[in-house]
Amino acid sequence: MTATEAAEAAGAIRLLAIRDTPLSVDEVFAAVGDDAAGGTALFVGTVRDHDGHAAGSAVSTLTYSAHPTADAELRRVAERVAADFPVRALAAVHRVGELAVGDLAVVVAVACAHRGEAFTAARRLIDDLKKDVPIWKHQTFADGSEEWVGA
């Protein structure tokens, strides 16, 4: 990425956070507001009451933990997406700590001139965030078993 591309990508990044407080869809959506954007794609990940990784086991508790480098990795992911797509605005927040079923775990949004670009960039943002940012999920199941995901 050239210096100019990096500067342009950084200007498109409006909100990045890893926090231990409840997330707001409205906050993320407002962060990507841009008069030149004709399409905004928003993804909201919530804690579900079961997990497919453990043969559909009922989830009783879920805790997210982040490595100290998670903020820097999240920024790198966002910069790559902003550089690779015609992004007008981008935002991503992930929650850590103990969450309950129904709580928001992650919210990402991307605004682009056109809807197709927004969908594609948002998909890449959430996929790369889940793949590259060192945030781990610890699940405890109703039967007392537990597992770490992403560790």
CATH topology: Aldehyde Oxidoreductase, domain 3
Low-confidence stretches at least 5 residues in length (pLDDT < 50)? none
Quaternary structure of the protein: single chain
Q: Would you report the number of β strands?
A: 9
Structural class, please?
alpha+beta
Global morphology: elongated
CATH class category name: Alpha Beta
Number of helices: 4
Largest sheet: 5 strands, antiparallel
Helix content: 25-40%
Distance between the termini: 29 Å
The run of helices and strands is HEHEEEHEEEHEE
**% residues in beta strands:** 35-45%
What value does the Rg take, in angstroms? 16 Å
Question: What is the correct CATH architecture?
Answer: Alpha-Beta Complex
Number of structurally distinct domains: 1
Mean pLDDT: 91
CATH superfamily: Molybdopterin biosynthesis MoaE subunit
Helix/strand layout:
Blueprint: H1 3-12, E1 13-19, H2 25-31, E2 39-46, E3 50-51, E4 57-66, H3 70-84, E5 87-95, E6 97-99, E7 104-112, H4 115-132, E8 135-141, E9 146-149
Helix pairs in contact: 1-3, 3-4
Please provide a written account of the structure:
The protein has 151 residues and is an alpha+beta fold. The chain has a single domain (3-149), classed as Molybdopterin biosynthesis MoaE subunit (Aldehyde Oxidoreductase, domain 3). Helices cover 33% and strands 39% of the residues. The protein is built from four helices and nine strands. The strands form two sheets. Strands 3, 4, 6, 8 and 9 form a five-stranded antiparallel beta sheet that branches. It has a four-stranded mixed beta sheet with strand order 1-5-7-2, sandwiched between helices. Helix 1 (3-12) packs across helix 3 (70-84) and helix 3 (70-84) packs antiparallel against helix 4. It is elongated. The model has no long low-confidence stretch (mean pLDDT 91).
